[in-house]
Amino acid sequence: MVKKSQKENVKPNKWLYIILFTLPLLCCLLITNQLDNDIWYLLSEGRYIFENGIYNIDPLSMHNGLHVVVQNWLSATSFWVIFDLFGQMGLVTLILICNFFICLLLYKICVLISDKNYILSLVIMFATDITLLSHYIVSRPQILSFIVLLSLIYVLELYIKSDNAKYLIWIPILSLIEVNMHASLWWMLFLFMLPYVIDSFKSELLRTQGYRKKPLFLAIGIALLVGLINPYGYKAITFIFTSYGDSYMHKFIGELLPFSFNKLLCKQMFSIMLAVGLIYTFFREGKIKIRYICLFCGTLLLGFMSVKGFSHFILVSIFPLAYFFKDLFPRDFSDVFGNLNKVFNILGIAIGVLCIAGSITLFIFKFQSNLMENPAEKPMQLISETFDADKVTVYSSFNDGGYVEFQGFKPYIDPRAELYLKKNNKKADIFKEYYELQHNQLVKSDFVKKYDFDVMLIGVTDKLYNEMYGYDNYIILYDNSEIGYRVFAKKDLFTEEQINKITESYNNATNKKIISEN
Hints:
Oligomer: single chain
Low-confidence stretches: 1-7, 511-518
Radius of gyration: 27 Å
Mean pLDDT: 86
Order of helices and strands: HHHHHHHHHHHHHHHHHHHEHEHHHEEEH
Largest sheet: 5 strands, mixed
Distance between the termini: 87 Å
Strand order of the largest sheet: 2-1-3-5-4
């Protein structure tokens, strides 16, 4: 009998596939206790586009005439259609499906660059996805972008491996999908392709690989032109240049803050960076690929610039380990475990069944839980029952604005920070004004007088939370310290009789609370 060669491709037991593809789904269901807060404005955008078509002037906020580019119009519309048909579990299912494709693409890439070391590929796929799941697999357009970006890497690696230009046809298609699904990350396609362009030039000094450039450059050129095929034309592909880099956004929005060891996420990312960096350094002689080094350094720079950038670092810095370890990691564990293979098969079946059963059980449990709970739900319910959405303006904080829009009202601001920059909306620096309000750089009475809000939904973290009692023209409708919200409304929206009833009801509720506390 001929002895198996060390390089022979040995596929792992099917139960290992099941375990390592099911565990991320199980973890995803465990982690997804609530849908991301951005889902509210995304659903509002999608609902409006689905019912009225693409718009250029914002219809969701209380401000008139704000120019807008809905750079994620296709993903927002998709989220709304799924939610409208299947509710919150439709959104959870979408997250699970996207995560499955992320796993599949990571696995395919690893198999390709590891010369079909299937077990190693499964391990690296699992490690990468679990790291992504901990922070970045959420109900936002970025999960769709992850699929597009990994598809791009897979296409490029297929082209290099096979020297077959047919795979490059997918590059313009991916460009078309991304510019309509999530235009703010469209340029990331070309940043990811840049290391492959560099590696296409043969150089002994730089140790680049060298491969056919003409079809690659042609595909990239077409992809650039295809980027203009969207409802907003050049405005969509230039969106990122007018929307990021604003100093007030980088001071206020957590995910845009720069790297800092004060954040747990940054500490975790630093550990990964250090471990992967040491491996890259160890394998610098002979086995290094310049494209992997460029991907590592480029995405690491993005992570240091803002915490959000670490998602791309995880996406493309770990899979190259499949290339480095392809000849060091066992392709078949039969030599290691020998006669214990049957035992491991039984264990694999048991663990696989448990993973599948756990995933199904958790999925059913999610149907019975409200993943779309919002702390402002009760006060917004009162506002919805009391006022006509078309007749009142609402003050709300940055984080609450999306939920206010979802309920059909028009807020002062919402999490679409880039919309409220003057260079985008062509009218006013509303985000700067809000930042100054929250950092005591504005006279609050002047701010309230300027906008003359009909209704004010104020959370406990808002600088106006303890300020509104001194305004004679406002009456308090709701005050709940447990959830941390107060609602004020202008007195001239009510009759004198209604004001007396509201005041009496509020005083009775306050007295009852004081008595119960004592």
